[in-house]
Fold these 2 entries.
Entry 1:
Amino acid sequence: MEPCPGYVLEMNEPHSLISVLSEINDIIDERMIPTLNDAGLTRSQSHLLYILWSAGPSRLSALAEQQRCVRSNVTRLVRTLEQQGILEKTEDPSDKRARLISLTKAGRATFEPVLQEYQHLEHELLADLDETEHRALLRLALRAAAILDRPSFSAR
C-alpha cells in the first residue's frame, strides 16, 4: 500500500498507533481551519455544536461530559455562542429548574458549512476503502475509543 503524498509517516516505518491517530487529528485540524475561521468558530465551539446537532437539546452537565471538560468551560462556550445568537437556553420540560441548550436557526446555518466540510473529509478518507475496510476501520476506531474511555485505563 502506498503512503499518501505528503504524508509524514511512511508505511514501512515503525510507529505507534497513538502517533498515527495524532497525525490524523493534526491533518483534520489543518484541513478544518479555513472553514472554522470562515464560520467564526473555534474547534471547541465546533465540537459543542456538533454534539447539539447530533444529540439535540442538552443540559450543560451532559455537554460537559461529552466535551470531556468541566462544566464551567462549557458554560463559557455556551455563553459566548448564546451572545452570538448561535445557541439558546430553554426550560427543560422534565425539570423546570434545569435549562436545555440548543442550536438556533442561525446556529444551524453557521454550523452547516462546518458539518459539510467534516462530511467531505470523511468521504475523502473512505473513498479508497471498500465497504469491508470501511466497516472494519469504523469498528476498530470505536473499539479503541471505548478502550481508552474505560475508567480502568486512565487509572494506570
Entry 2:
Amino acid sequence: MIFLGILSLLMFFVGIIYLIAYPIYKLFEKSKINRIYILIALGITIIGAAIFIKTSFVYNKETEASTSKQSKKINHKATKITLKVNGKQTDYTDRELTANDIRQATITGTIKGDTKVHFLEDQGGDQEFNVEANSDGTFSKTITLPSSKAEISYWIDSEKQNKSQNSEDSTLLKVTIKSADYAAEASSISASSMSAASASSAAAASSSTEAASSKAAAAASSIADYRSDITYDSLARNPDQYKGQKVVYTGEVVQVLEGDEETDLRVAINGDYDDIVYVAFDPSIMNGSHILENDKIQFYGKSKGDYTYKVTSGTKITVPLVIAKKINDQGLLLMIMVNDMETLDFSRVLFCTYE
C-alpha cells in the first residue's frame, strides 16, 4: 500500500512537470505545441492523482480499523469482573441468609464481566453448578436446606474466574444458609449424632460380647466332644479300634523332644510311668512358650493308633500315639490350638524312627 502511494505521487509530479515544462520548451522553440504530448501529460497527472487519493483513503480505513481493534482489546482487558451477593455480611467475603418456614432461601446478586455464576457446596458437599445471569447482570438461585442439616454453605464465584483461578482478581464469596431455628436444630442434630455414635458403640460392644460368648460356647462344646471314658489300657490294647477317636488324658511329662516343625512328649498317664502315651503337636502355635519335663498337663487330641521307637539302649518300645489339639499345662491353663492336626508330618519323629 505504501508502494502504491509513492508510485502515484511520482506519476503525479512527473505529469505536472511534463505538462508545464514541455509547452514552455516548445514556446521557446517557437514551434507549435504538440497536443498529443499535452494529453499524455494530463492523463498521467490525473491517473497519479486518482491513485494517490484512493491509496490515501484505503490507508486511512485500515488505520481506523486497526485502531478500533486495539481499542477494543484495551477495553476488554480493562473490563473487570465484579460479583455482588446480597445478604447479611458477617465477614469481608462471607454472607449469611436465613431459610423460610419451608427451609428455602434465595441467593441473589449481580455480576459484571461474565454471564455465569459458579456455585460449589462447602464442607465436602457434592453440589456444583452454574447459574445464568440475566441481561442486566442480576441472578438468583433458590436453595432448599436438607432436613439433616441446620446450615449449608456455598462458595460463589464468576465462572470465568473459577476456570482461570486468577487470585489477583478473585471474586470468590461464601454464602451460608441457616435454618429459622438454627440454634435448636444444631443442638438437636449434634445430640442425635452423639446418640447414634453411642448406640453404634453399644451395638459393637454387644456384638463383641456375643461373639466372645459364642466362641466360649463353641470351645466348651468342642471340649465336650473328647472322650474321657477310654482308659489307657483300652487304648494300648486296641489301638486300631480307637484310631481317629478324640480323647482326653491327664499326665506328667516324662520327656520333651523339641524341633522346628514338631514337638514330641512322652507323658505318664496319671503319673504312672508304665502307662506312657506319645504326644505330638506343632510348636509354632505356642508363641514362644515351652512345656517342660515334670509338668502336669491335660491334653486333648486324636488317637493315631500306636507308635514304635527306639531308646538309646536300642530297645524298641511301642506306645499309643496322640496328636494333641489342646493342652492345659499345670495351673497356667495354657491352651494350645492346632488348626489342622492332619497337616502334621509324623513320618519322622525326633531322635526316633518309625518301624
